[in-house]
Amino acid sequence: MNMQKKSQLPLNDGNANKKRKALCSKETLVKLLRWHFGYPDFRGMQLDAIQAVLSGKDCFCLMPTGGGKSMCFQIPALAKSGIVLVVCPLIALMENQVMALKEKGIAAEFLSSTKTMDAKTKIHEDLDSGKPSTRLLYVTPELIATPGFMSKLTKVYARGLLNLIAIDEAHCISSWGHDFRPSYRKLSSLRSHLPDVPILALTATAVPKVQKDVVESLQMENPLILKSSFNRPNIYYEVRYKDLLGDVFADLSNTLKSLGDVCAIVYCLERSVCDDLAANLSQSGISCAAYHAGLNNKMRTSVLDDWISARIKVVVATVAFGGGVIDQAKMLCDRAFLVAKGRDSMIVQQCTIINYIFDPLFGIDRKDVRIVCHFNIPKSMESFYQESGRAGRDQLPSRSLLYYGVDDRKRMEFILRKSGSKKLESSGSQEESSKTSLIAFNQMVEYCEGSGCRRKRILESFGEQVTASLCGKTCDACRHPNLVARYLEDLTTACALRQKNGSSRVFITRNGRYHMQNMVSFVTLFNKDIRYGYKDGTLRHLFAQGCAFNSTDAIDRDQLSEFWNRDEVASGSEEDISDSDGNGNEVVNNLTRSKLQSRLGVNEKLAMLQQAEENYYRNNNTHKQSNKVDKNAISDSMREASRQRLQNALKQVQQRLENFKYALHLSC
Ligand SMILES: Nc1ncnc2c1ncn2[C@@H]1O[C@H](COP(=O)(O)OP(=O)(O)OP(=O)(O)O)[C@@H](O)[C@H]1O
């Protein structure tokens, strides 16, 4: 490891009481900051937190993502001889931080099961010595709960060598925190065993209940409460409405392209969408890869590695919602692998296990992410804030773009209700848990469906009072209020129409194609299905998902029927290509058969598509001659779009095959 040896600043000699005042002076602390970290000055409330704990006070410190929380305990560790104990939720994170500190010549260690017996013995010997060289000792809450380690700490404390206990990601203590971790609760014993040691609780979770819970659980005494604003002035917030966009994928792709060669993250809810998006973006010429727990270890590590080192620009990640233990373990392997490879400078020093569940990219310190896109609505404002907060950690102008769809909203509500009912089995508090999640989610829906300032909504959800001028037109609602108001009106109309027309999706473009008098306009949507848009704003599906394109998945009729609007079929709408003369169904049947029996080439599938289309027009032609030119135009664009779609799908399959070969090769 590249250990950069740096001498200590001669600031202390162990007589802390005498020198306390001097140690707490801004001048001294800034000197330490510059000497060890090379930063010119403290950020936000760092100095207040550092001075509080150095003067023996408890402190609760709320700072946004990337705010520089670690510095609040790292500087105190350098200001005084003795030990600062850091409680950290994740071994990989501890490794990360310790490695970064060691590279700066700072004596930091961590204790975990991953250490060899020899290494552990050395650390314990150092702790037992009257003058330990270790300045920062990172441990997990589980270790603190063991009687053996607590008795060791008590001895260090008795010798007056324990200066501070820092609880990183302190919201894990609270069941109101989005990533509650039961073992954190046991930290309540710290105060009774080590009564005079100041406690510093650090978190980026701003829910007031969490703060109260943390302060009470840790038995903090009259703590200094420091709350930084959660405002991220360098991020421009925007929402786009899937139900009003003709082709969400094209919109995303064009947006990314328009930004040029910049680093980006796209979050989505499901692995399959993640894979599809990544494949399609790649085909559109965007340097991009998928990242989720469904990939094997080496693939994921290699994707992360490529992204961190800027070999790929865009990473499409799942928010791994509901990811199981195995998923988390896989993610942790990646992190350990990267840490082992010594990519420390590129990896952030902090992360929580639960954030792997919600945000697999949490802890990856790419400061220059210029845009974070949410392809699906996140489950809460907190998640959204964390994820969108990956943008612009270098403080330069960046963007958060959320694609909101009514279907997505319904799906998320369903998931949250489901996860509530799962918790019932274990905790008996289904209703409570489900309600809390749904309330939290509702804030997110309001963020999307509300017309007011987005920034204000984010900050108010964290309990911040916000002036009207704060945003300064750095969100779409403030910059283009009329446009956003019109979208929201359109969305309401679209929803009403959908309700009226059963399950049909409504297609309304921003340029008003919804009002076109053409009977049929063709649209392709990203999600592997082809749909016809109608003058009444409804869409009918011609092909079921995967039926025409995916040559590997088995498909059955039930799966197909999910993508047809049965009500419309029953009503026998004369405009329904799927129903009017059976051609639509016939095509589907043919394609399904062809899928099961033999794999047709693109040209044959296109021929079928065209045949169905021509039959449709022939049968409905008599009274619509006047529209012929329009229809021909539509027909051409339809053919072209279908051709494109099929070719893309084939490429996608090829890419998957390549991926599979690569995975096979690696596992061999
Ligand atoms: N005073 C400072 N001046 C400049 N950079 C700083 C300062 N303090 C911390 N930083 C840098 O800011 C980055 C974020 O710091 P840190 O990882 O401690 O943030 P955090 O609040 O823990 O964020 P997260 O919750 O996302 O992990 C780090 O690269 C750190 O070195």
From TrEMBL:
Catalyzed chemical reaction(s): Couples ATP hydrolysis with the unwinding of duplex DNA by translocating in the 3'-5' direction; ATP + H2O = ADP + phosphate + H(+)
Domain Helicase C-terminal: 255-435
Alphabetically ordered keywords of this record: ATP-binding, DNA-binding, Helicase, Hydrolase, Isomerase, Metal-binding, Nucleotide-binding, Nucleus
Source organism superkingdom: Eukaryota
GO CC annotations, alphabetized: nucleus
Location of this chain's protein in the cell: Nucleus
GO molecular function, one term: ATP binding
Family to which the UniProt record says this protein belongs: Belongs to the helicase family. RecQ subfamily.
PANTHER family reported in the protein's UniProt record: ATP-DEPENDENT DNA HELICASE Q-LIKE 3, DNA HELICASE RECQ FAMILY MEMBER
NCBIfam families the UniProt entry points to: recQ_fam
Protein name: ATP-dependent DNA helicase
